[in-house]
Automatic annotation (TrEMBL), chains A, B:
NADP(+) binds at G165, R166, S167. Transmembrane segments: none annotated. Pathway: One-carbon metabolism; tetrahydrofolate interconversion. Residues 6-120 form the Tetrahydrofolate dehydrogenase/cyclohydrolase catalytic domain. This is Bifunctional protein FolD. The keyword Nuclease does not apply. The lineage of its organism: Bacteria, Bacillati, Bacillota, Bacilli, Bacillales. Homodimer. The gene is folD_1. It catalyses: (6R)-5,10-methylene-5,6,7,8-tetrahydrofolate + NADP(+) = (6R)-5,10-methenyltetrahydrofolate + NADPH; (6R)-5,10-methenyltetrahydrofolate + H2O = (6R)-10-formyltetrahydrofolate + H(+). The keyword Cytoplasm does not apply. Its EC number is 1.5.1.5, 3.5.4.9.
Amino acid sequence: MKKLILDGNVVAQEMKEDLKGRVESLKRNGVTPCLATILVGNDPSSETYVKMKGNACKRIGMKSIRVHLPEETTTEELLVKIEKLNNDPFVHGILLQHPVPSHIDERKAFETIAIEKDVDGVTSAGYGQTALGFGEYPSCTPAAIMKIIEFYGIEVEGKHAVVVGRSPILGKPVSALLLNENATVTTCHSKTTNLAEILKQADIVVAAVGKPNFIQGDWIKEGAVVLDAGYNKGNIGDIDYNACYEKASAITPVPGGVGPVTIATLLKQTVESAERDMRDRNRVPQFRQA
Amino acid sequence: MKKLILDGNVVAQEMKEDLKGRVESLKRNGVTPCLATILVGNDPSSETYVKMKGNACKRIGMKSIRVHLPEETTTEELLVKIEKLNNDPFVHGILLQHPVPSHIDERKAFETIAIEKDVDGVTSAGYGQTALGFGEYPSCTPAAIMKIIEFYGIEVEGKHAVVVGRSPILGKPVSALLLNENATVTTCHSKTTNLAEILKQADIVVAAVGKPNFIQGDWIKEGAVVLDAGYNKGNIGDIDYNACYEKASAITPVPGGVGPVTIATLLKQTVESAERDMRDRNRVPQFRQA
């Protein structure tokens, strides 16, 4: 059986090439797509992620604004900042880098992001729309997984997809997206008592646990498609790659799998928000523009 | 093994007794909980459902308003009506009886209901909150199923729950609620290729298909808990009751299973909305009430 390496860099490259043209076209129309990132505190890996995202914006001609707030920022202060970005007509997307310091009400902060700027897909309203099948901006990692599946022509309908993890931005939305594509979906988590037994039935495995090398090779059915959404310290995924590689018909590496597509998805959704913004402006009748 | 009949009438009765006291207390404070039902067109079973819900309100001392719109009502006209109820301070809950006539954009109508009055749990925003674990008003039938499970002390954590159906108000939210109670959840549907095989693994089965007697006895594992959310013509559920009864350790009958608890849940959520309304009024500083 031919083994397929699901190369996220190839997918992301194609997406970014497409986006470059769209950004140029927006700029010709006077709109520069802009992503605002908010970082609270000084977690070094969060700083790295935010920097990476800002750089990715620049490389395709987008603007990015970095808001860096001190560790001791209160929830209220953060909400004020988010509201300001919600009301800033030059900002098309808002990304609050998580985790935020533990004294901050992260959910409240997420919920404050205006849904039309929630390009990272963190609000419950956005999640609800995604799950019911009409969301504009799903969470980026789940959307990236679906993009890889689509790019490589992997069949989803009627397949049994098993998602390991149930976080609001990963396990839950990827389960919802797979279900909407007509997979039979099982969502497993820390309280699942027979994980190996369930995984062995999976045609499609999505690992979204946050535990390095957690998914074992002998839990995987011969020929399964294995997608690793894990990003643990030292660039290690949630699956035991070498062991799962032997079993899988297709597999994402870490790094170079889901990660680059996630960032490309963030850019894409910000560009889409800018495109909507432009369409909305053009819809304003002339006499109101005086 | 002792067979447990999950008697929805007993559960609903207890809920309604509790609600009667809460309604009285609200009325003593000048607030009469009020549910507005909207019926578009003349579908006889929809008329019956709406009437049942109105009568259920009255029996526990609540008010209900019936809005009956003609078959030819447009989406726009319906939205105007919903907005009016959103802004009516005496209305605590809004129920749009579905299905609406096919020329109406049902989703748009649902989405127009203000989330604080969405006691029937039909908005995507409400669904998102429910799925992420902090929803005020889940869809009534899923909430009823969880209530029955709680009432009869059925263990959910670590169990494998299989939900058959994925509608926005039934299959999807009940999957989400079971997941939040730490079940491992599989959602099956019309594209599932190996339904019997998956159902045979289920500790908890929720049938939400809308096909009379669809779930067969030999698809059920010995000792499973079987919950039938189906309501098909002639008061027939989605499970083949007699055959499933033999296998199940606990089972809901149809009628008298999930149905009565669904209506009690609708009442409960409307009363909760009224209670929130009263708390909010009391929170207004005195000088602003002049």
